[in-house]
Amino acid sequence: MHYHTFKMLEVIFILLALFAMWYAFSNFSSFKRIFIGRPMRNKELNAQHTKLFWILALPILSADLYSSVAYGPEAGITELLSLGESAKWLILPITFSTVFLLAILILSYIMGVIAYPNGGGAYAIAKDNFKSPYPSLVASSALLVDYILTVAVSVSAAVEAVSSAYPVVAPYETLLAILCVFLLVVINLRGVAESAVVFAYPTFFFMACMLFIIITGFTNEFHDGFVQNTTPPFGTFPQGLTTLLILKAFSSACSALTGIETISNAVPIFREPKQRSAIKTYIALGILTAVTLSGFAYHLYVKGVAPDPQNTMLSQLAEGYFGHGLVYQLIIWSTFIVLILAANSTFTGFPQLSAIVAADGYLPRALTNRGDRLGYSNGILSLAGLASILIIAFRAHTNALIPLYAIGVFLSFTVAQFGLLRRWKRVKDKSWQAKFAINLIGTVISAVVAVIFAVTKFTSGAWVVLIVLPLIVLFSCLIKKHYVEVANSLRIDPKVTRPEQHHIVSIVLVSGIHRVVNNTVSFAKSLGSEVIAVYVGFDDESIERMEHKWEEWGEPCRLVVLRSSYRSILEPITRFINAMEKWEGGKPDHIHIVVPQFIPKKWWHNILHNQNALLLRAWLFRHKDVIITTVPYHLEK
Amino acid sequence: MHYHTFKMLEVIFILLALFAMWYAFSNFSSFKRIFIGRPMRNKELNAQHTKLFWILALPILSADLYSSVAYGPEAGITELLSLGESAKWLILPITFSTVFLLAILILSYIMGVIAYPNGGGAYAIAKDNFKSPYPSLVASSALLVDYILTVAVSVSAAVEAVSSAYPVVAPYETLLAILCVFLLVVINLRGVAESAVVFAYPTFFFMACMLFIIITGFTNEFHDGFVQNTTPPFGTFPQGLTTLLILKAFSSACSALTGIETISNAVPIFREPKQRSAIKTYIALGILTAVTLSGFAYHLYVKGVAPDPQNTMLSQLAEGYFGHGLVYQLIIWSTFIVLILAANSTFTGFPQLSAIVAADGYLPRALTNRGDRLGYSNGILSLAGLASILIIAFRAHTNALIPLYAIGVFLSFTVAQFGLLRRWKRVKDKSWQAKFAINLIGTVISAVVAVIFAVTKFTSGAWVVLIVLPLIVLFSCLIKKHYVEVANSLRIDPKVTRPEQHHIVSIVLVSGIHRVVNNTVSFAKSLGSEVIAVYVGFDDESIERMEHKWEEWGEPCRLVVLRSSYRSILEPITRFINAMEKWEGGKPDHIHIVVPQFIPKKWWHNILHNQNALLLRAWLFRHKDVIITTVPYHLEK
What we know:
2 copies of one chain form a homodimer. By secondary structure, chain A is of the alpha/beta class. Helix content of chain A is 64%, strand content 6%. The two termini of chain A are 43 Å apart. In chain A, 46% of the residues are buried. Chains A, B: InterPro entries: AA/rel_permease1, APC_K+_Transporter. Chains A, B: It is found in: Membrane.
């Protein structure tokens, strides 16, 4: 086939695709049914089958946290790369302190679940325990920004994992990442429980893979010894090691801890008893993550693996044990899937949190609308849109963002823990001192880590977070102010303010004497108010012809003819309305414009008819205080 | 600056750009003023200052034809490349027969201008001389398709010319080409005469460059002899030369002749006396083109230049005379400008032709709308859109399309000439026999060339043209049929059919008792027709509360409460309308739905209010026969 024959087919294909998009748009509802499924009734909201059994909730809600095991220890030790061989053993204390922090945080969050069985996210806790709205808004803004970053980072990392195994897809990374986001949108618009069933088993498989690597490592060490010839020396303090460097390494390793809050936000989606289920999930997840993190750190130390930007340490370890065969392929693909699931867990968290905040009036109210399938559609679409912008801007290479979102996470941890502290002091229920102590440790540690992040990463972009967060809080307050003001201005006393009789003048736009005009004039006259027909002419001849025809038609109402010098109908009509608004004495309360609109039988016939009515309507609505009635005329053919 | 700080700034930039686009869109009219200029009055349409003096019309209307000199002879001789050195002299007979054909065609078109002083394009001539609409539709479809191809080809060639001189822009060819199309749109929306003044001088400069090359060639030959050692042998018939090959070479060379019809289509844009001006322009253009084509062919023969895909023959010739210095740069840039002008001349032709065809009812009527600046805006935008699709699909490498559009050109030539033949026979004015003879030759030659094109280029894509053209003709006929049927169904006898009294029931959608609802109910009740308030509730509690409040409000009209099981307001309202349509006895003639709509003070406040009214309106309008009134409520704050 010739080159340009091929290209011609491409043009035809583009035109067909445009046509298909147009068709899909104009027949949106049936397409929606195919992709999204049948609508669900209100009462299905509380039905058990959209609720999650905890074993199924584990993969959905923990993918964000658990997937970080793949890069946490590496991120920490990379900061110490410049210190050479003698610093390698530091991967052990750094990872173990991360695991310790993980334990504290999970304990603190279990306290949160105990205190708030109906979903104790940082926002809800702060709202309940602080009079001022600012702590809760700081928490929610930080979390919402982090959710967006998580989607961008996880999807990009998933695509990168695949493209490092199959370099052929490398040029299409951005496109693939956007496609993945689109898929997540479709799945989440379908509803939560169904996506759990789809995704639960692959994540279990990933967890099994990770545990298999750790077991393989121990087997290897039983055979070849716990100190091998690759094992670096232990316990020496390398030259040049400063406190700042240790803090940097520690805070980078802590980026593995993002995602802990997902479960506490999502308590209501658990099957009953939801509180116990959530706590079980937390404990199971904590043990799994701790074992995996510690195991990896230990094996990496024994094998003396060093960071390499072309090949992750996890991948180096797996290669060392299994070579480049089937097991390696399985690990790559399960990594891909778990990273997509990390993004998916965010698609549960973001819409729920934004709906709660919007219900309080701090975000646009549209975020509280549930779609046909009971998901918060607007939240899902906003998340996908903002994450896609990040993916496109960073061309699907978003690793640099990972440390940034840790600030937001630890900021919201701190707010939540501090809120719980205030609660225990106020409520003073059974063994409140123990709970208080746990959350006190949690508060202090989260706050310290947040500050360490902000200081050590300030020049690497943390400043952006420190600008964006206050801005979001400011906008939230402005939105709340607007809603309060609108509600106040709309409130009436039903006993005092009652509907009144208004003086209405109806203006019918006529373009000639034909069936459409007959229909429109009939409607306007039947309403009973005063009717004026308005004709816009472009030259004397057409104006005279119209006046003559109107007389012949028996002058069903008063006719006003307007001359247009600019071929526009907007300008003379605006002039006429302005004049009416200044009518002395008889100025009407409402000017009521009646415009006919063609409704052709086939939607694509619309392109054949000038839709002046629509343009006129949009323009007048923006610029003048008029009431507009559109009278459809359904063409039979 | 760190990599991700930089990227962050990019994200902020993207968000700002999106915001700017949104702002520009919502303040469209002021942006339009800046780019397009003040609106012009109807009477300015016939004012002399938008009309063109013929010397200025020459560059505007001839760029399409004249720019082809750069590739015509080359396209012809390339077909004979395989025959070797001994075929090189054939560039002379092939080019001279092209020049001969040019002379015949220009003469024939001058006959057209004499016969049709008000614009004698192929479409107008065919319409006037054939009873059947098909010949004129074939001509107009062929020309419209060619105009689109011309824009794509010329703009792409212009960008390629620049990028071969400056390889640094090569990766951005598609983007640059689209930008050029956008620029042409802006210039043409501003109006015809102004663009002439902008573009006339650079084209003159290109013409001067071309003539300068030819004169330099002759000077060179006076010095170094008319037979140089590079000159190939003359007059030998190479082995393997077949009739088909000669025809192929001839037809490829004839692709240089596209664009002749532009002047005859555009007679009305000339300054008076327009007929004489158009003929003067034709003669000047014919002489210029003939001299340039012949001169090039001769010098190319003397220098023995061979086709080279990396370097055009014209560029090789110029390099031979002037080296790679300033003169070469000037030639490259003037080539760029003249090719852009070739596209620009099409922006004059396409909108005019499509407006004429649309006025006859064979294309969507919107193409006849003149914009603020008197240009046919919809035609200009359609042309730019379709050409952009071709440019994107072919990644700005559209050379392969050049021979294709020659088919359309010669097809329309044939139709026009044949129409003129019929006219001379019918009118029989002064010396009609001579005119008849000229057009007879023109008809036969155009027809033969069109057939040669279709046969020799069939497998290289001509089949696409032979499929697309009949389809366009078919669609044109369907459009005409639709308009005729609509006009018939709308026609009434003003003495018989008069406005009647209709029974109207107004439905007011209420969401509670507040100021907006008070305003809407007041309006509906003041109209005087029967009013029913409809409330959609999602649960029993809200329904009871509403019923109680309504009572407290003094029941200004009947209240109907509907329950929604799917959180949708569309579904219960549709059910209610369906029920009303089946009311026995009292079925109303019109169901009139009154919906309130918030108009916030700041346009961006719209995002804070659920625009359910708009969605409801769009949906009901498509699916039900109801009249919809939108009552604006202007928020004071």
